[in-house]
Amino acid sequence: MLRLNHGATSAEHPVQPTFISYPLDHGLLADLQPDPRVDLQADRGVDLQAERRTDLQADRFPASLSAWNNARLELKSGATHFGYVYGGQPVLECAAGRFTLQPGMYFAAVEAGSIGGAGRGMVVSRWGARAFFHLGGPIETTGRLRYIDGCTDSLLVPPVVKGDACLNLLHIPAGTRQSQHTHPSYRVGMIVQGHGHCVTPVGQVALEPGQLFVIRAGGQHSFHTDQEALTVIAFHPDSDFGPTHTDHPMLNRTHLTRST
Asked: Taking the domains of the chain in order of start, what are their residue ranges?
């Protein structure tokens, strides 16, 4: 079973891959948990090793990556579930109601519920987080914000408060050679459209539509494209952006006047 290792490498602790790829199978694919005392297999009721799943331990932001594939996926309580519809017309059931979704739509659902019954897609469950219910899409063909090396990004589900999780759309134009870079926390996502490859210190990983992935915190990587652009859904477990108690639109646009 693969486990996250932040320490020095040795024969006992070999170099772990930066970019971990998954097919769009049904069920639990990866667990990112902060406490090594947590028994993930008992907690989730799944033998991850036997099911060829990946256990990424010792992360600051507990989350799990799951997918549905023409079947119903249970969403457990204790998390906000960030999801994307890759295909079909799945039904999302949660505290906010029952919604039939379309390809290209995305959501944030709080606490217990379910998604699926038809179609395919991904869910990242951020344990202990409580976002607002959010339903949006379909996604656009390019991002609205500039990013590195000519790429663009859109914030699909923003953080409720600075530091909270968020869901993003990343567009990488054809013919891009991204600069090698890292992120301070892990990234979880899906290749939605196009082909390319991810370059890491231990090799290259081919990218294709429907592919799910985890990028380890601090892992060096870059995305390269040739004739096709890449469209990527990317979940961030934290943020350095968002409103605070001393900096938000309601407060900033309130001007107190002296009483007469």
From this structure: 19-136, 145-236
Q: Are domains 19-136 and 145-236 of this chain identical in fold?
A: yes
End-to-end C-alpha distance for the chain, whole angstroms:
71
Rounded to the nearest 5°, which phi and psi values hold at 11? Answer: -65, -35
- 147/172 Cα distance (integer angstroms): 9
Say if residues 185 and 217 touch (Cβ distance below 8 Å): yes
What is the fold of 145-236? Jelly Rolls (2.60.120)
**Secondary structure in 3-state letters for 170-216:** EEECCCCECCCECCCCCEEEEEEECCEEEEECCEEEEECCCCEEEEC
Kindly report the backbone phi and psi dihedral angles of residue 42, in degrees, each rounded to the nearest multiple of 5, phi listed first.
Answer: -70, -40
- CATH fold label, 19-136: Jelly Rolls (2.60.120)
pLDDT digits (tens, 9 = 90+) for 47-88: 434 343 444 444 689 999 999 999 999 999 999 999 999 999
- List, in sequence order, every residue forming a beta bridge with 133; answer none if it has no partner: none
Which tops the pLDDT comparison, 130 or 17? 130
pLDDT band at 93 (very low <50, low <70, confident <90, very high): very high
Question: Could you count the other beta carbons within 10 Å of the beta carbon of residue 66?
Answer: 26
Structure tokens at 246: 């001393």
